[in-house]
Amino acid sequence: MEALRMETENLTVYYGKHAGVRGVSLPVYDRTITALIGPSGCGKTTFLRALNRMHDLNPVVRVEGRVRLDDEDIYAPGVDPVVIRRKVGMVFQRPTPFPTMSIFENVVAGLRLVGVRDRDRLREVAERSLRQAALWDEVKDRLNEPAVGLSGGQQQRISIARALAVEPEVLLMDEPTSALDPISTQAIEDLLVDLKEQVTIVIVTHNMQQAARVSDRTAFFLDGEMIEFGPTEQLFTNPTDPRTEAYITGRFG
Amino acid sequence: MNLRRRYLRDRIMVAFVYLGTLVVLLPLGFILVHVFLSGVGALNWDFFTKPPAPPGEPGGGMLPAIVGTFVIDLMALAMGGALGLGGGVLMAEYPEHPLNRPLRLVANVLGGVPAILMGLFAFVVVVLPMGGFSAFSGSVALAVLMIPIIMRATEEVLRMLPWELREAGLALGLPRWRVTLSLVLPAAKGGIVTGLLLALARAAGEAAPLLFTAFGNSFLSFDPLGPMDSLPLKIYVYAISPYEDWIRQAWGAALLLVLLLMVTNYLARRAVRR
Amino acid sequence: MKARLYGKLGDALFTALLVALALGVLGVAGLLAWELWVGGAPAFRAFGFWGFTLSSEWNAVSERFGAWPFLIGTVVTSAAALILAFFPSLAAAIVVAEYAPRRLGEVVAYLIDLLAALPSVVYGLWGIFVLVPLVRDHVEQPLFLWSAEHAPALMGLLGPPTGIGMFSAVLVLALMILPYASSLARDAIRLVPREQREAMYALGATRWEVVRRVVLPYARGGIFAGVVLALARAIGETMAVTMLIGNSGQLPYSVFGPAATMASVIANEFTEAEGELHLASLLAVGFLLLLLSLAVNLIADFILRRMSVGEGRK
């Protein structure tokens, strides 16, 4: 059994008065991939964004319950969201390269924040992160070109490299391949499996095959609640809840 | 970790941007309060009903300027509205028309031409040939000022309507002109009215284009071919005059003008909401 | 048959009407430039285009006219006003679009729009009776007296402490373009996609770091284009400047002293112009003002096109 890296306890997220996520308790194990699946609007993205306090940016959203990272409650008073987000990185649905920055500057943007100026160190980290994101060979000769000149799949891997550069403990991914073509999707899925050697991944996906292919454990969300959680294989082959079964056999969603 | 330093910078910048905002807003407060306090005393019955007293004599009012403001601005709105709407509709509804490229250029360029040059233009093309200053020439100057505003607003509003609206009409067998007149324009009515009112508000505050066109007139006049007065013009003339009572009335006129503009802007906002 | 006629004839008439109106718009714009050029031609002919533009003598009695003092006056006052206005307007835009809670942001944005709608003459009136005495008594006189005592060499540079002059004109001009520049910057900042901000937050950035490294760079095209448009606005601004700048036909030689801009000299002298050449010279100044504002507007357009990122272009 792997060690516990993150854990939510009775997590509820309110949008105004409406609870978008209700009472979810989910363990996230170290160096594994946890997939969150469910139909649109089921709260899986909302849940994911609670894991690195992204909801703090939206004043109408309120989070209740506990989220522990290495046994520390990230919503406890005095805990700084800036520090948490450094430990828990995020990759978004659409590639988000910073358009005014070069490929290199994009990847080291997180290091620049903390004031790393040492050229050699920055280069080293950029190379390592780009290699991790399986992009080094494609861009190593044009690191100073704008990142927006790359293809969509490459841009998404830039976003991944950028998130990896700050060496997060956990990487949250919000449907990272939904805006990409099948070949780029394949490349990123391969990448994920390699990445879990180094980092814990929680991935929201709309695509059940993707969850089945890459993840170790899967949580099924429906209507703001977590219906079922378990090893991926078990959840897909032998779900305990009839609603899970209905979903994975394609009867709705 | 230098987190503390980063937060310090974060806090300092919060202070800075709010301070900057204060620098922007405080003068507004000062100006509005001052205009109100200095102007409210001048607004009496005479102010609205009497023509100005002869220079140096106290009393008198702003009637010619108030009437003139409405006459000049409404004539301008009629002219500028027609041309601006025509251009805007052509740009939005006939995107394939060859005139659109120059029209778009003109809409951009004309919007950047200083208002005083509209006055010079109207002087040369209206005042000189007609042999004298006139309200009409002032309206021409203000109309030119309004054209790009109305044109751009109209085009923008029409473009926001879904293209399916036109297709639905055409599919019913309506000719294109009926589609534009009976479907598109009614659907965009609120936005178009907003554009017209904003252009009106913009022009109504201008004195520069009227200096050598409408020129000003101390007597009540409804003759569009003769000189006519206007509130912004009167504020300028009174403000640089040496007479205390005129200066007092300049503040009154400023207050009245600001109130009129605020009402116009409010109506413009309301029109777009419907 | 009848329906066809109704459709075809109607379409023909309707497009003819629209085209006529559109031609009217084009005609007005073309005529505006043409008439200013023709009206100013006698002056350009008498002194030469560059002779007129670069000569700094403006004398109605000797009938020698040159636009240089006004060109300089326009550029100096506008640029100075823009420098004063830049940071506060950007700060207000950042507050409205990024920092303030929604309601406060709306209120501030509304007030800024209101400020932008105040007529030039009202700023001028306020300038004459509130700002000028303030500047005279609390800025110019103390400075002037101080320099008289400690640095007499500076006195010439400062100019007469009357309150009326370039200094006051620049202050009012800055106040007037603040809301305009701010609302353009606000629009540019609002075009920055939310994902961009979130991506930076997710790297562990503070709010200022997000603004500084993501929002402002992304919006730079719109912000700088807005700044240049505000400059264009300042260049053409007439009434308030005319009321405050002191209207001197000489090159501005001092900070507090009187000067004139192209717009202010037209406003001030046009109705009193005697003699064909004086009138033509004022029209020629108008033509130069037209060229200058067109050039500045084109620069704004160019900046918007060249510096914008992504779909940020309007």
TrEMBL record, chain A:
Annotated PROSITE patterns: ABC_TRANSPORTER_1, ABC_TRANSPORTER_2
Q: Where is the ABC transporter domain?
A: 6-248
Q: Which GO terms describe its biological process?
A: phosphate ion transmembrane transport
Listed GO CC annotations: membrane
InterPro entries from the UniProt entry? AAA+_ATPase (IPR003593), ABC_transporter-like_ATP-bd (IPR003439), ABC_transporter-like_CS (IPR017871), P-loop_NTPase (IPR027417), PstB-like (IPR005670)
The record ties this protein, via Gene3D superfamilies, to: P-loop containing nucleotide triphosphate hydrolases
Mind listing the UniProt keywords for this protein, alphabetically?
Answer: ATP-binding, Nucleotide-binding, Transport
Q: Which GO terms describe its molecular function?
A: ATP binding; ATP hydrolysis activity; phosphate transmembrane transporter activity
Provide the protein name.
Answer: Phosphate ABC transporter ATP-binding protein
The record lists the organism as Oceanithermus profundus
Q: Give the classification, highest ranks.
A: Bacteria, Thermotogati, Deinococcota, Deinococci, Thermales
Automatic annotation (TrEMBL), chain B:
- A Pfam family it matches: BPD_transp_1
* GO biological process terms held by the UniProt record: phosphate ion transmembrane transport
Q: Which GO terms describe its cellular component?
A: plasma membrane
Membrane topology reported for the UniProt record = Multi-pass membrane protein
Localization of this protein: Cell membrane
Q: Recite the UniProt keywords alphabetically.
A: Cell membrane, Membrane, Phosphate transport, Transmembrane, Transmembrane helix, Transport
Q: Name the residues that span the membrane.
A: 12-45, 65-91, 103-127, 133-151, 179-201, 250-268
Give the family this protein belongs to, as stated in its UniProt record: Belongs to the binding-protein-dependent transport system permease family. CysTW subfamily.
Q: What name is this protein filed under? A: Phosphate transport system permease protein PstA
From the UniProt record, report the name of the gene that encodes this protein: pstA
UniProtKB/TrEMBL annotation, chain C:
- What function is annotated for this protein? Part of the binding-protein-dependent transport system for phosphate; probably responsible for the translocation of the substrate across the membrane.
Cellular localisation = Cell membrane
Listed A to Z, the keywords are: Cell membrane, Membrane, Phosphate transport, Transmembrane, Transmembrane helix, Transport
Recorded family membership? Belongs to the binding-protein-dependent transport system permease family. CysTW subfamily.
Q: How does it sit in the membrane?
A: Multi-pass membrane protein
**Residue span(s) of domain ABC transmembrane type-1:** 71-300
Q: Which residues cross the membrane?
A: 12-34, 67-96, 108-134, 154-181, 222-245, 279-304
Keyword Transferase in the entry? The reply is no
Indicate whether Transport appears among the record's keywords.
Answer: yes
Q: Which InterPro entries match?
A: MetI-like, MetI-like_sf, Phosphate_PstC, Phosphate_Transport_Permease
**Which NCBIfam families would you find in this protein's record?**
phosphate_pstC
SUPFAM superfamilies, per database record: MetI-like
Please state what the protein is called: Phosphate transport system permease protein
* Any one Gene Ontology BP term: phosphate ion transport
